[in-house]
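Notebook B, p. 112. Complex prediction, attempt 2.
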Amino acid sequence: KIVKEVLFFPDKGIACPNVSCEDKNCRYSHESTCLRALVNHLKSAKKSLDVCVCVFSCHELAETLVYVSKGGVPVRVLSDKSIGDVVNSRIPDLRAKGIPVRIHNTPYLMHHKFAIVDNELLLCGSFNWTRQAVTGNNESVIVTNDKDFVERFCNEFSRLWELNSPQ
Amino acid sequence: KIVKEVLFFPDKGIACPNVSCEDKNCRYSHESTCLRALVNHLKSAKKSLDVCVCVFSCHELAETLVYVSKGGVPVRVLSDKSIGDVVNSRIPDLRAKGIPVRIHNTPYLMHHKFAIVDNELLLCGSFNWTRQAVTGNNESVIVTNDKDFVERFCNEFSRLWELNSPQ
Ligand SMILES: [Zn+2]
Ligand SMILES: [Zn+2]
């Protein structure tokens, strides 16, 4: 089955974490949102989930990785040292939950924003994993299982993972 | 003909603007670089060239747009107001050369980084049009002429172009 999607942010709100929510006072969004589509793709991981994203501060996406990891799927996160300056960085949290994280630390940025599910599905675009990117910014994420794209990003992830040591 | 490429930056240097350069002392790179591949794609425009990029400070890419525009191809540039804070913004230059530019001005970012050649070829990824992104950062750009992707980005460009007035 061929997957070809584009997610265009911003969403109108943050998707409610409770899929069957009936709370009339709930402040979350219950429409289909790009964040929900993104989360569903990440949660579909059965063998591996590799995330390579410059800035990671979105609580909902960190929760998603923890959920996948607790389900027994190896999750790896590559991020940039600039994350240290970001308010609400999720990196310490992810490490505390046992997810291996490697940080790119040079004068230049590891500016990628992509994730690979099961070495088969690529999510790639302008989208940093921040709340502002979800509900504020104009952002685009291409979702594809085209091998010609996926394989090249798998190689790039492996290369950068080896280059950056655990700290 | 199907186009499916991924450009992974950084390049080792800036591609020499002189394709047939034989200057032994030339400091530019004469290997095939991602920047050169990007420039060649942009220069292939025959009908239109639409650029939607959050930060635009790279001199070589501005020169490329001017070259395309002087060849009679309509070029449009959408960028973010944050560009005003960026050293070496190419926006005033582009306007001075007659290229229409619209600036997204809200508390949030127009954070896209894509370009569309002839409404047929999409270049999309993490790559801002800055010198640092070319020779320093780790960046990725997907190049594809798959209609399912291209059309959705054409729509997004049109939508944002209409939303933001010329200033
Ligand atoms: Zn709810
Ligand atoms: Zn030269």
